[in-house]
Specification:
The complex is a heterodimer. By secondary structure, chain A is mostly helical. Chain A has 9 helices and no strands. Chain A has helices at 8-12, 14-47, 53-76, 79-94, 106-143, 146-154, 159-189, 201-212, 216-244. Chain B contains 9 helices and 10 strands. The chains are: A mainly alpha, B alpha/beta. The interface between A and B is medium-sized, with 26 and 32 residues.
Chain lengths: 250, 241
């Protein structure tokens, strides 16, 4: 069976696969960073509460509630649908040569044709991953013993100082494994962006299979590339866990 | 230094504190004793606002603790607290544990904060552990570091919440020695404890709290030696057995 493989197809389209890999990596790195930052903000917002007065109600109804709604939407609908919604519905509204809400005119035309799919994919995947990461942050923050923040507050440290210096550094260690899983999911889910024409790995395989009507070679090739990337990523996360796991007594 | 009037604390329908009244003078050492669930820890935690009082008045060094408009953080900076479970920050060295709050809250330089920390570690006998991490220390050593950490903010009042209850018996003495020295220097201290020996020898007054009120209070000789209240007698019979 393997003797009938036509590996020269891959050789012929090698630049396409290399560019696809590069695009997948680029999109994944941006999405992991943006998703983690967004998740941090959302996760903290989800837990924000105050004892008294204006802030009590402000945090409950203007921060907590919208965050819960956001997380619920992005976890409750398929990422594929979110990508399509953002690319074909939201983006034309925001960036449009004739009357886009953010950019219009020739610049909009330029952006759409050059970076349209990339922007949409990165935006959709980042927003989606922010929702998942916020739950990782929430669980991580809540897993830290109350005594830790009580000790910090009793020293006169305020809420944000306590979060930054005491809670998050400890929570981060516990969050590394789920954050690693999330990064791996982003690498794999970026393949969905081939549907809106982003020239990443899955798109390369589609192009090749379309040209030759051969399916084993291109899809096996990109499978191996994805696998290699995710293996490297897990090894990196494991290294981080070892390095930052010190000093955690509990 | 501390003035408490009709302090109430409810958790839902449970009335934990049912009207505590007391005055604690500067340099006074007060030990709070009582059965578990009597509200003595809750009383202590209300004093620095870790628990929010449901009613009544708390004044610490002239600051109304349960007034929502005050800066609770500034008030807490002047009130040290030591916990039953130490609550050292496990991801920081002993030195970092001591200098974090002075640097963050008081904006001290690292150099100045380190000088203060070294002085305090010398005082609690742990200067050689300055670079150790909490999980490398015994329980007694951790609690002494926790005391030094609280002292690093130069508080006017120190609150102790059962500071020796989580310790192996042979480690209790070293912590009590440090606390005794602190009392000798004139620190205002409120100590929730089961160490009757410490209460008898070190405190100026003993509060016996039961069912959310101070049932009996007075000099240790009186409260521990000749208790007038039937409940105090009953409690002391059980713990001194």
């Amino acid at each position: 069976m393997f003797s009938s493989f036509h590996w020269q197809i891959i050789e012929e389209y090698l630049p396409l696969f290399i560019e696809g890999t590069w695009m997948t990596l680029k999109a994944a790195v941006i999405c992991v960073i943006a998703g983690t930052l967004l998740g941090l903000v959302l996760g903290v917002g989800r837990l924000a509460e105050a004892r008294h007065g204006f802030y009590k109600y402000f945090l409950r109804y203007a921060v907590q509630l919208p965050v819960r709604f956001y997380v619920s939407f992005f976890r409750g609908t398929p990422l594929f649908v979110q990508i399509l919604l953002i690319h074909f519905a939201l983006m034309p509204l925001l960036i449009n040569p004739s009357g886009g809400l953010i950019v219009s005119g020739d610049l909009a035309r330029e952006i759409r044709s050059q970076y349209g799919a990339f922007l949409s994919a990165v935006l959709a995947i980042s927003l989606n991953s922010g929702a998942y990461v916020s739950e990782i942050f929430r669980a991580g923050i809540q897993s830290i013993d109350r005594g830790q923040s009580e000790a910090s507050r009793s020293l006169g440290m305020n809420y944000l100082q306590t979060l930054r210096k005491v809670v998050l550094p400890q929570a981060f260690r516990r969050m590394l494994p789920p954050l690693g899983n999330n990064a791996i999911a982003i690498v794999k889910d970026s393949s969905l962006a081939s549907a809106i024409g982003l020239a990443e790995l899955a798109y390369a395989a589609r192009t090749v299979s379309g040209a030759y009507a051969r399916y084993w070679e291109p899809y096996l090739t990109i499978s191996l590339i994805y696998w290699g990337i995710t293996l490297l990523l897990s090894a990196f996360v494991e290294h981080l866990e070892k390095r930052y796991g010190k000093g955690d007594a509990r | 230094m501390i003035h408490v009037k009709q302090l109430q604390k409810n958790y839902g329908n449970a009335h934990i504190l049912r009207g505590i009244d007391c005055d604690i003078a500067e340099s006074e050492v007060v030990c709070v004793i009582g059965p578990s669930g009597s509200g003595k820890s809750t009383f202590l935690r209300c004093l620095n606002g870790l628990e929010e009082a449901s009613g009544g008045e708390i004044l610490v060094d002239g600051v109304k603790v349960n007034d929502p408009t005050i800066d609770l953080n500034a008030m807490r900076a002047g009130v040290g607290m030591v916990f039953q479970r130490f609550n050292l920050f496990p991801h920081m060295s002993v030195l970092e544990n001591l200098i974090m709050a002075p640097m963050q809250v008081k904006k001290m330089s690292r150099k100045d904060a380190t000088l203060v920390a070294e002085k305090l570690l010398l005082k609690v006998g742990l200067l050689e552990k300055i670079d150790a991490f909490p999980n490398q220390l015994s329980g007694g050593q951790q609690q002494r570091v926790a005391i030094a950490r609280a002292l690093a903010m130069e508080p006017k009042v120190m609150l102790f919440d059962e500071p020796t209850s989580a310790l192996d018996p042979e480690l209790v003495g070293e912590v009590l020695t440090v606390m005794k020295a602190l009392a000798g220097e004139g620190m205002t201290m409120v100590v929730v404890t089961h160490e009757m020996g410490f209460a008898r020898d070190v405190s100026d007054r003993v509060f016996f709290i039961d069912q959310g009120v101070i049932m009996e209070q007075g000099p240790p000789q009186q409260v521990l030696g000749e208790p007038r209240n039937e409940r105090t007698r009953d409690f002391l019979r059980k713990v001194l057995l």
